Amino acid sequence: MGRGPGGILAGSKSTFARSGRASDIRCLAASQPFYDSSRLSPRRRHVASGVAAPSTGFPVTSNPQRILQVLDGHLRAPFTLYVYGRSALALGYPNSPAAVQGTMDVDAILPAKDILEIETNDDFWRAQELTNRDLDESGLYFTHLFEDRQVILTPDWLDRTVPIELTSLRHLKLHRPSSEDLILTKMMRVDPQDREDIAFLLRQADFDQSKLTHALANAVIPPIKEIGEAFKRSKDWLFPKLPATRF
User: Rounded to two decimals, what is the model's pTM?
Assistant: First the structure.
């Protein structure tokens, strides 16, 4: 394997090396496409998803907020984070259910256009490592970072993100994808929890069926067979719920 830009080894599996830290990256050529940035020591995910973790001492109401409060406290400079998954539902919608608020992690999308800058941002990676250290006993974690080419999204997803206002944060600037892009990300697997989340997004005030139709027609799907098959099955499931929409 050769060494690519920014010190990333080219190949199906690569390793970041930052001040003694290492993180596995599962690229698109691998069987699991996700960009999984983990701490050097393995995570102990001993608290089940959806179960509230012990308080970290911050006056906040959801696990994602607790995680991001800790991350923000370790940052020394501004950083823009695009959250998705259940953390986006917990932080980006005022009526999200308790199970969503209790998710144990924060997932984030890294825009491809910023990837080299992010890879060399030692402040962010130091803050991420310290956050996971501080939260280790609670079972909360911040390790799953996905490059946008590894997630089903529309080509212009970044232009339509929605800011998330958390006044307690000093350095983090939070955004979530639009509701239709979040629905696309939930169609990468055939999973009951993801379908519950899609149903929740369909009920939101900013949901626009015409925009979802456009998103489904223009979705950029990672070249992974399993993801493509899951997307097709998810569309078949979604179709009856939108009887006026043609895919």
Answer: 0.78
Q: How far apart are CA 162 and CA 173, in angstroms?
A: 11
Strand-strand pairing, 172-176 and 162-164:
antiparallel
Of the candidates 52, 42, 8, the one whose C-alpha atom is nearest the C-alpha of residue 26 is 8
Nearest to 223 by CA among 147, 148, 150: 150
Per-residue tokens: 138: 């609670």
Q: How far apart are CA 192 and CA 51, in angstroms?
A: 17
Here the tokens at position 165 are: 């206002």
Query: Looking at the DSSP assignment, which residues form a beta bridge with residue 24?
Result: 15
Whether residue 221 contacts residue 231, with contact meaning beta carbons closer than 8 Å, is answered with yes
What the block records as the tokens of 67 is: 């995680």
Q: What is the mean pLDDT of each run of 10 residues along the chain (247 residues)?
A: 30 30 34 37 35 38 94 98 97 92 96 96 98 96 96 98 94 98 98 96 92 96 97 94 58
| Bridge partners, 25 (sequence order) | 14
Task: Return d(Cα 179, Cα 24) in angstroms, integer.
Answer: 30
Rounded Cα–Cα distance for residues 18 and 164 (Å): 30
